[in-house]
Amino acid sequence: MVLLNWGFTCLTTGNGVAKRGLDMKKLAFFAGSINSPVREKLVETWKNDSEISVHFGRLTTPYSDQLLGSKFCLHVKGFGVNTARVADALYYGCVPIIIANHYDLPFVDILNWKSFSLVVATLDIPLLKKILHGISLAEYKNLERNVMKMRKHFQWNLSPVDYDAFYMVMYELWLRRSVVRIPLHGVGLIYTLADKGAILDSSRSENRSILTVCFVDSRGMMVRISS
Questions:
Q1: What is the per-residue pLDDT across 30-57, written as a single tens digit (0 to 9) for each?
Q2: Signed CA dihedral, 42, 106, 156, 198: sign only
């Protein structure tokens, strides 16, 4: 996997795509350190439950088996910004459950997260099982199908492939060009972006700074996005 500065982890190619089995024994799964009050509340509430499996410390079974054997995978905000759990869930075909009051999801300007995930407020942690059981089989199957469709957007390839994580990041930057302004100082500053032949080229006019993102697409064409 490759960790991007966007605040999430993307999948890398090379290991194929995980396949889910028919025997999903757990309703939901979470494993991680207790480094926030929200995670502490989750573990305290569901640590002895037979359907919702929450762990801290070392797992006794492979992490991948837990993801493959669960209908829902819990993403619980800790102290850090970065997490691999959303990408892990998507890779293993597990529907992500985002437990947070405010969280800037990756590609939120592009993807309809409601179509393949569920957001649960932290105050509703005690109601988590009721909420998940309230999702009908038809609704769950639709979420799961959409998870499978979304995986390609979180895939990071050695050479960019249409609609993969590289293109998603570039498109998200382009969409936010009129919203996010990066203060640039100096003239002709160039930054390398993720070793993909993409550069950020900043230059200054009399009244404003200009940010340009350049990269080579899958057809070998130079693409330039300016704001």
A1: 988 888 899 999 999 999 899 999 988 7
A2: negative
Ramachandran angles phi, psi of 20, nearest 5°: -90, 145
In which region does residue 37 sit, left (phi positive, over 0), alpha (psi from -120 to 50) or beta (all else)? alpha
Partners of residue 98 on adjacent β-strands: 75, 119
Provide the pLDDT for residue 23: 61
Helix (H, G, I), strand (E, B) or coil at 88: helix
Please answer whether residues 125 and 99 qualify as being in contact, where contact means their C-beta atoms are separated by less than 8 angstroms. Answer: yes
40, 54 in Cβ contact below 8 A? no
d(CA 135, CA 56): 27
Q: What is the pLDDT of residues 139-151, one digit of tens each?
A: 999 999 999 999 9
